[in-house]
Design brief:
This is Histidine triad (HIT) protein. InterPro entries: Histidine_triad_HIT, HIT-like, HIT-like_sf. Pfam families: HIT. The chain is an alpha+beta fold. It has one domain: HIT family, subunit A (2-Layer Sandwich). The protein is built from 4 helices and 5 strands. The protein has a 5-stranded antiparallel β-sheet. A hairpin with an 8-residue loop joins strand 2 and strand 3. The longest helix has 22 residues. The structure holds zinc ion (ZN). The site of zinc ion has 6 residues, from helix 1. The site of zinc ion (ZN) has 6 residues, from helix 1.
Length: 141
């Protein structure tokens, strides 16, 4: 099992918890809800091990990972009915494979462009708001 103690996706430390909330574990990944909710329903699907590239995964791992990503995207589509879901896998510095799942709405923020990783001002929810979104996603996974 590849692990890097300096990676917040591996250590699951306070830096991670300050920007996202765990929703659940799937077959080969952990799903998080971003606290920043400019793109309502924005999630992050994080591979279970510290591997950087999709090409570092075995065929089986890659298939299982895409299956997890698809499962989350289907739940987001069903709940929020976005006009398009954007998938972002960047990780230049944090080299731990993860896919941003970003629902976009025609006429909404960043429509027709790349989504903003850290929009300002932030759109934050209260505890009740996060719980509601997380429960709806869990229910649809
Ligand atoms: Zn890692």
């Amino acid at each position: 099992m590849n692990f890097d103690e300096n990676c917040f996706y591996c250590s699951k430390n306070q830096d991670l918890n300050s920007i996202m909330i765990k929703i659940c574990d799937l077959e080969v990944s952990t799903v998080y809800l971003f606290k920043e909710q400019t793109y309502k329903g924005r999630c992050n699907v994080v591979f279970k091990e510290h591997k950087s590239e999709i090409t570092d995964l075995t065929e089986e791992e890659a298939a299982a990972f895409i299956k997890d990503v698809r499962k989350v995207a289907k739940a987001i589509q069903k709940i929020f009915n976005p006009d398009k879901i954007n998938y972002g896998a960047f990780a230049d510095t944090m080299q731990h494979l993860h896919f941003h799942i970003v629902p976009k709405y025609n006429g909404g923020p960043s429509w027709g462009k790349t989504f903003d990783m850290m929009p300002q001002p932030k759109t934050l929810l209260n505890e009740e708001g996060y719980s509601e979104v997380i429960n709806r996603i869990k229910f649809n996974l």
